[in-house]
């Protein structure tokens, strides 16, 4: 079967790749594109470890066909990298809101999307927004606190 040619933007950079029609975005990210931050935890969209953004909306990359990226804007955890840590990353470190690291990229992507949409979330809103991200190590309290503290710091900096 012929490969599909896909032109997209990933983390602000134009990208092109070839993929099979049934290949997931997660497989392309981790394979040919070498962006291994998104993890495969379940392969069924239940755990959130593979969370990326598609035009600013969070999606499970294990459920997204790579061909659907054509002409779209994709954001991955690698896009949070820079000269300095993103405020969420810094707060996660300070709060010990991570352990094994499997869920962390997806949680950070979901939390970043939340704070971009709502810079002043309630704890209930944070919990609701992150409900699609499963963590088997931390118990969520430190994660929720890190997101809430980041939101507070961002508001104070305005």
Strand-helix topology:
Layout: E1 4-10, E2 13-19, H1 25-30, E3 51-54, E4 57-60, E5 73-75, H2 87-95, H3 104-117, H4 123-129, H5 141-157
Parallel strand pairs: 1-5
Antiparallel strand pairs: 1-2, 3-4, 3-5
Helix pairs in contact: 2-5
Description:
There is one protein chain. This protein is α+β, with helices and mostly antiparallel strands and 158 residues long. The chain folds into two domains: 4-80, Beta-grasp domain (Ubiquitin-like (UB roll)), CATH 3.10.20.30; 87-157, DNA polymerase, domain 1, CATH 1.10.150. Helices cover 34% and strands 16% of the residues. Strand 3 (51-54) and strand 4 form a beta hairpin. The mean pLDDT is 95. Residues 4-80 form the 2Fe-2S ferredoxin-type domain.
CATH architecture identity of the largest domain = Roll
- Widest sheet, order of strands: 2-1-5-3-4
Weakly predicted, low-confidence segments? none
CATH class of the largest domain: Alpha Beta
| Largest sheet: number of strands, sense, barrel closure | 5 strands, mixed
Q: What is the CATH topology assignment of the largest domain?
A: Ubiquitin-like (UB roll)
Order of helices and strands: EEHEEEHHHH
DSSP strand tally: 5
């Amino acid at each position: 079967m012929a490969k599909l040619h896909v032109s997209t933007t990933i983390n602000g950079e134009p990208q092109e790749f070839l993929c099979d029609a049934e290949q997931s975005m997660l497989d392309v990210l981790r394979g040919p594109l070498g962006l291994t931050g998104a993890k495969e935890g379940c392969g069924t969209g239940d755990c959130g470890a593979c969370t990326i953004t598609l035009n600013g909306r969070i999606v499970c990359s294990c459920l997204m066909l790579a061909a659907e990226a054509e002409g779209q804007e994709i954001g991955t955890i690698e896009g949070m990298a820079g000269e300095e840590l993103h405020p969420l990353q810094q707060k996660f470190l300070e709060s010990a809101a991570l352990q094994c690291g499997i869920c962390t990229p997806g949680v950070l992507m979901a939390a970043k999307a939340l704070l971009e949409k709502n810079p002043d979330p309630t704890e209930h809103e944070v919990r609701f927004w992150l409900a699609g991200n499963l963590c088997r190590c931390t118990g969520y309290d430190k994660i929720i606190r890190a997101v809430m503290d980041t939101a507070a710091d961002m508001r104070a900096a305005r």
